[in-house]
Amino acid sequence: MIKKKYKILLKNKYFWISIFFFIWMSFFDSNSFMLHYKFRNSIQEMTSNRDFLRKKILLEGIQLKKLTTDSMYLEKLAREKFYMKKEDEDLFIISIKKKNRKNKNLTSHINK
């Protein structure tokens, strides 16, 4: 009984046309399912980039407003970020280097 159904199914031209249509639409057509999947992924990526850039624009706008209105913030930023100083000041830059715990432990054992 089951074999008979499969034989009828395999001889049916509509079945083969449907299979061919599905394969064609999946891989070869200009509106294939693969392209739709890629487009959906790129849309999601672009949306996340857009949201990130909107947040960044908002933060930059806040910082610009703060720079144009607050002279103390402008001076602080110039001193910290660009190492600017007044004419009668001396500038000392102290950098702190952090050592890894492993290296510190090795050197302490060697010194003992």
UniProtKB/TrEMBL annotation:
Transmembrane helix recorded as keyword: yes
Keywords associated with the record: Membrane, Transmembrane, Transmembrane helix
Segments crossing the lipid bilayer: 14-37
Alphabetical list of Pfam families matching this protein: DivIC
Highest taxon, organism lineage: Bacteria
This protein's name: Septum formation initiator-like protein
Organism: Blattabacterium cuenoti STAT
Taxonomic placement: Bacteria, Pseudomonadati, Bacteroidota, Flavobacteriia, Flavobacteriales
